[in-house]
Amino acid sequence: MIIYLLCVIIIWLFYIVIVSDKSLNKPPGPIPWPILGNLKLLRSLSKKFGGQHKAFLYLADKYKSNIFSLKLGKSNFYVVSGYDGVRKILKDDNFDGRPWNEFIKIRNMGLRKGITMNDGKEWKEMRGWLIRCLKNLGFGRVEMTDKINNELLIILDKLSSKNGDIIQMKSLIAPAVINVLWSVATGKGINDTNRLNYFMDLMVRRASAFDMAGGILSIFPWIRYFAPKKSGYEILVKLNNELREFLLESIDEHKKNYVEGKEMDLIDMFLKEMYTGQGPEAGFTEEQLLMILIDLFIAGLQTTTITLDFLFLYMTAHQDVQEKLQNELDLIVGDNQLPQLSHRQLLPFTEAVITESQRLRLVTPIIGPRRVLNNTIIDGYNIPKDSFVLINIYSVHSSSDNFSNPEKFEPERYIKNDVYVPDKKLILFGGGHRRCPGEILAKSSVFIIFTGIMKKYKLLPVSDKNLPDLEPIPGLTISPKPYDVLLVSRS
């Protein structure tokens, strides 16, 4: 009798949910279970298809809708696919908000600061200040490219002793990317090898821990009280404390040595605002500076390093493309020179290769979450205020409506009459008010490091029978599976 009654209650609840969704004109989606919502289904589909972005694509197709709903724990999410819907979200101010749940509080060390997981008036002002600051520090000018070129020379020096060896490219790329970011933030690179390796390892460990703990802690934040170790909460707090201490050392050093009028880096320029500019009452506090630095390193290190790693993977797997790219570099750059940013417009095929690799393997195939600031409508459906939206960029880049043979690595798709013409439906750095503020630095770093290495070296498969696996490791960000290359000097 009790079992029968429970079945009736469950069926009745499901019926109420379905009728309610239809009457409120909500997007379609799978029926949620009590407490868990659709978490189990999403995990199962992600495992089956090889990532959350592919699971979302399956669900959009299943419900014949570019927007569908999911219940994850007690939170309502709406997943948007397709070019039109994605562009609306990116350009509409109604979607500029961010959630402030327990998982994001952990990510932000309890600080509603910074430029990534914050919103509102203070966020707009800090984001505007950061963009102006980066321009003053030489973004897009010689000052910035000199920093990247210096790191390229260090990489090439290391590679000179590895000619004919089997190596993994990522281990050489990551230190260079960190040092470019570190020099922007602090005015100089990390010269101490042990300190550099520690920081690099700390960022990798932190990214891995958040990747593993993200789902469960964001949906069931209370679990950290009952299972702090198993939920990943304990390690996240430990890694956050390590990162805070590491960055505060540099902030404290800058505070001791600060001289007004001689600001040479991001920390100095922030201290100027804090001491003699707009001041703490306008949000220029030490906590704000700490969070901006964390946002800068989290965004810049992971995406730039992995983007380069995918590029070298594709060059290893596609020897014909590598040969064509190197022929173009030889023709335009010359025998004993390294590519400069000034060569970029003269290298259409090289630019097309970089773009195609990012289209196929965008490091963040899903972006968000966004918090809806006002009741609004997407694709004819009502989206209530304070609900959450996830944006499936992968759905745009993998659609045959947007790109012919979308699963094929085909740089030539962007070449028209020997000129590089990027497709208007590419979304590589977001858009709107939340477009990546470090886009210029990321593009410049990728171009200089990638072309510099490809000008000097061939990357060959270890053997014909041991070709690298092009399928990525899924997660909050995707990355290549570890792969080896045979490094051969071209000179």
UniProtKB/TrEMBL annotation:
<dbReference type="GO" id="GO:0005789">
    <property type="term" value="C:endoplasmic reticulum membrane"/>
</dbReference>
<dbReference type="InterPro" id="IPR001128">
    <property type="entry name" value="Cyt_P450"/>
</dbReference>
<keyword id="KW-0408">Iron</keyword>
<feature type="binding site" description="axial binding residue">
    <location>
        <position position="436"/>
    </location>
    <ligand>
        <name>heme</name>
    </ligand>
</feature>
<protein>
    <recommendedName>
        <fullName>Cytochrome P450</fullName>
    </recommendedName>
</protein>
<keyword id="KW-0349">Heme</keyword>
<dbReference type="GO" id="GO:0016712">
    <property type="term" value="F:oxidoreductase activity, acting on paired donors, with incorporation or reduction of molecular oxygen, reduced flavin or flavoprotein as one donor, and incorporation of one atom of oxygen"/>
</dbReference>
<dbReference type="InterPro" id="IPR036396">
    <property type="entry name" value="Cyt_P450_sf"/>
</dbReference>
<keyword id="KW-0492">Microsome</keyword>
<dbReference type="GO" id="GO:0008395">
    <property type="term" value="F:steroid hydroxylase activity"/>
</dbReference>
<dbReference type="GO" id="GO:0020037">
    <property type="term" value="F:heme binding"/>
</dbReference>
<dbReference type="GO" id="GO:0005506">
    <property type="term" value="F:iron ion binding"/>
</dbReference>
<dbReference type="InterPro" id="IPR002401">
    <property type="entry name" value="Cyt_P450_E_grp-I"/>
</dbReference>
<dbReference type="InterPro" id="IPR050182">
    <property type="entry name" value="Cytochrome_P450_fam2"/>
</dbReference>
<keyword id="KW-0472">Membrane</keyword>
<keyword id="KW-0256">Endoplasmic reticulum</keyword>
<dbReference type="GO" id="GO:0006805">
    <property type="term" value="P:xenobiotic metabolic process"/>
</dbReference>
<comment type="similarity">
    <text>Belongs to the cytochrome P450 family.</text>
</comment>
<dbReference type="InterPro" id="IPR017972">
    <property type="entry name" value="Cyt_P450_CS"/>
</dbReference>
<dbReference type="Pfam" id="PF00067">
    <property type="entry name" value="p450"/>
</dbReference>
<dbReference type="GO" id="GO:0006082">
    <property type="term" value="P:organic acid metabolic process"/>
</dbReference>
<keyword id="KW-0503">Monooxygenase</keyword>
<keyword id="KW-0560">Oxidoreductase</keyword>
<comment type="function">
    <text>May be involved in the metabolism of insect hormones and in the breakdown of synthetic insecticides.</text>
</comment>
<keyword id="KW-0479">Metal-binding</keyword>
